[in-house]
Amino acid sequence: MKRRATALLALAAAVFAAARAYESRYPLLGYLRAAAEASLVGGLADWFAVTALFRRPLGLPIPHTAIVATQKDRIGRILGNFVQKHFLSQDVIAARLRGIGPSARAARWLSDPENGRRIARQVAAGLAKTLEAAPDEGLQGALQDVLAARVKATRVAPSLGKLLSLLLADNRHHELLHAAVRLAARAVHDNRDFIRQQVKTESPWWVPGVVDDKIYQRIVAAIERLPDDIEANRDHPLRTGFDAAVRDFVDRLQHSPEVIARAEAVKEEWLADASVSELSARLGEAMRNAVVRYAGRAEGAEPGPLERGIAAFGAALAANDRLLAETDDLLIDVTVSILEQNRQEVGDLIAQTVAGWDPEATSKRIELAVGRDLQFVRINGTLVGGLVGLAIYAATRWWR
Q1: Closest CA to 10 of 46, 45, 39
Q2: If 0-12 CB within 10 Å is exposed, 13-18 middle and 19+ buried, where does residue 327 land?
Q3: What is the mean pLDDT of the chain?
Q4: Do 155 and 268 meet the contact criterion of CB atoms below 8 Å apart?
């Protein structure tokens, strides 16, 4: 581009010389000479301006030349402040991130089975190496500490009471009552002969056998009818009694200091038992073996639970627009907050980096970045200067 701009300037000089030489013989060449002369002036002026940005024209110590080399520190500070103010502002970053939709992109990426396989393989391989390097005693101790800490932090009785209260909310405990009563009725039906014999054995000697049979038949019939009676009658005494007992038990689990203290004592006894250490050892060995096996699976193996879980999570996230929007809001808030706190450091980094450059190297780097466009300035100056010179010359000639 430099050669092109210089060649155009040389062409203007040649035209000027030729027109000047023959203008006395051919007066109309005055127009061409004026245009070429103005082109020379415009081209030389723009050459000086462009060159003065990066170096001293012709090596002459002219003031306010080689601007990039002599003012690079100030340029670095200006550039850092410009980036800090206009590129790292909250509005710009938030608008850009919202336009990108990072959560949707991440969800689509995770939903790809191949990406899920890659993540699962990396996680399993890293975890397997860690577990293989860890001593058995250390792993067992860590698991035991985690298990004990978690159990100690959880109050058994209130937690069990909350779980049972969920069953009471939908009257699911009635299903347990129905099942127990049906089981009892089935047991009576399957042991009719034994019951009949027991009634006969326990009955006084003076009671006739026919009375024993009546008692037996009534007992069996009443028990066998009991499941249907309970299901048909919502106010059946057995149902209401069972319901009251269960609700009282749940209430005592959640609010009775005695029951809570007794459950905590049982928990402490269980934690002090040797079975906890044995359980921790078995869990540690099982976890180690499972992770090592998972990490050593062949490339073409069927997707494992971790891979399927990652892909399923990505698919579920991608299908939930509300969750995607909430996740984007969270990511944007965190990112904007971090940039707001550290954007001064970004501006300082740019300023310090430019300040550390060699002046000559800085000029070359910036000239390589924008120099091509600046050569168009020289070309345009040469062409526009010629047109302006031609217009002025023609105007003065016509004015006469």
Answers
A1: 39
A2: middle
A3: 77
A4: no
